[in-house]
Amino acid sequence: MGMDAKRWLSAVAGAAASLLLSAANSALAAEPDCTRCHSALSKHKVVHAAVQAGCTTCHAALDASAIPHKVTGKVAKGLAAEQGELCLTCHDKEKFTKKVVHAALGMGCTACHDPHSSPNEKLLSKRVPDLCSDCHAKDDFTGKVVHAPVSGGMCVACHDPHSADRAALLAGPVSVVCLECHADIKKRPHVVSGFSARGHPIGDEARARPVADPLRAGKDFSCASCHEPHRSSFPKLLRIDPKAGMGLCQKCHPK
Fold first, then answer.
1. What is the mean pLDDT of residues 87-115?
2. DSSP letter at 146?
3. What is the pTM of this model?
4. Alpha-helix residue ranges (DSSP H) falling in the chain
5. How far apart are the first and last CA of the chain?
6. Rounded distance between C-alpha atoms, residue 110 and residue 33, angstroms
7. 3-state secondary structure of 87
């Protein structure tokens, strides 16, 4: 190869390198390093995948070259869309639109979740049950006898935190949810024996239609007809003092 050819190749290589460097610099200018000022937003153990995808994934209408940053769209913080709509561009809408929707969804996803990073799983702003107690009165979950999942902060073991097809955001029919932990109830007659092989019904029996709760108008009969699901003043989370003897039964079964 002649000297002129080598010089030509060297010039071409230099020009290509300059173009690549210029393109890289342009990319950096278009996508500034937000962590230079906002490093604290991603410092926790659990980091939102959207953060790793780049700040402009969500903050698309923000001119970061201006200090303070200039919002170029109609949504606060330069978000590409309003909060709920924005989150649903990645998260499955069906999980949030079932028959019964948690009221907290109306407050926005960030009422419970940090959009950037968190020390807690699911990017929760607090650990459960402390987070739940921000809206739900603690008195409803404290008493002489407290259900083990409640004292253990396992709210989502029974309730879906977003939406469900059943009242109280229950993950399934009441008795089915209870039997997830109390399966032994089905292994022997419940409460009474001698009248049937299974003892007292618990609400999971196959029937053409649900049996109405005799004490709670508008509700179906279930484990919760006799037992409080969260806390009680009586043993076994009973709704009525068992010291009443037959009077306990007569609350539903008149003489």
1. 95
2. E
3. 0.79
4. 3-30, 35-38, 49-52, 83-87, 148-151, 174-179, 246-249
5. 113
6. 24
7. helix
